[in-house]
Amino acid sequence: MDHEFKAHQPPALTLPAGDMWVFGYGSVMWRPGFAFLDSRPARLFGYHRALCVWSWVHRGTQQAPGLVLGLDAGGSCIGRAFRVAAAEKQAVAEYLYGRELVTPAYIAMLHPVYLGRQRVTALAFKVDRQHDQYAGKLSPATAAAVVRDARGVSGANPDYVASTVAHLDELGIPDSPLHAVQAALTQG
Fold first, then answer.
1. In Å, how far are 79, 91, 99 from 177, measured between CA atoms?
2. Does a structural domain hold residue 98?
3. Which terminus of the chain has fewer Cβ atoms in its 10 Å neighbourhood, N or C?
4. CA dist list (Å): 80 to 13, 16, 33, 133
């Protein structure tokens, strides 16, 4: 696992029996940071991918926040599901809690995802709409203006958006709102 982060608050989730699935919709898709047995395209219903979280650590600071993705209420999200061996699931969950919960802007959840017609339960992280880091829906121009100069402990915010868009394109996953932010960034 690549970075060591300390979780702001430990989640109270009981992990599923056997192997565990993890749903990635942003950087976990292209930089999971953990060993996995299998990776497949997956769809999660009830939430959509949105650049809706003020980043105070990974891609910005509290004084100069960036923006990162969150699972926001409504719609559905196509991403990647990673199957983690039962013997490794506790360590992987702890790694992800530390990575994703450096502030309490996300809520860890076990949620159904679909691998084609197969339904599995996966660990995922949704945005907490009540938290101060919830940015809500921003226009592509506003989001690009925030992202353009933001930088945090995991690097430059424009690199995060560009990497996510590149990997979505590579996987054939459409995301016009995120592509619009990327286009606004490249137009300067």
1. 15, 34, 25
2. yes
3. C
4. 21, 18, 14, 25
Q: How far apart are CA 108 and CA 125, in angstroms?
A: 5
What is the number of alpha carbons within 13 Å of residue 173 lying toward its C-beta?
Answer: 26
Cβ pair 66, 150 in contact under 8 A: yes
Which residue, among 136, 134, 77, has the nearest Cα to 106 in the 3D structure? 134
pTM of the entire structure? 0.91
Average pLDDT on 98-118 reads 94
What does the pLDDT look like over 111-164, one tens digit per residue? 999 999 999 999 999 999 999 999 999 999 999 999 999 999 999 999 999 999
- Is 79 domain-assigned? yes
- In the chain, alpha helices (H): 27-30, 89-100, 140-148, 157-171, 176-187
Residues 14, 50, 31, 145: is their CA dihedral positive or negative?
Answer: negative
The first and second tokens of residue 99, run together, are 């990575």
Residues 121, 84 contacting (CB under 8 angstroms): no
What total of structural domains would you count in the chain?
Answer: 1
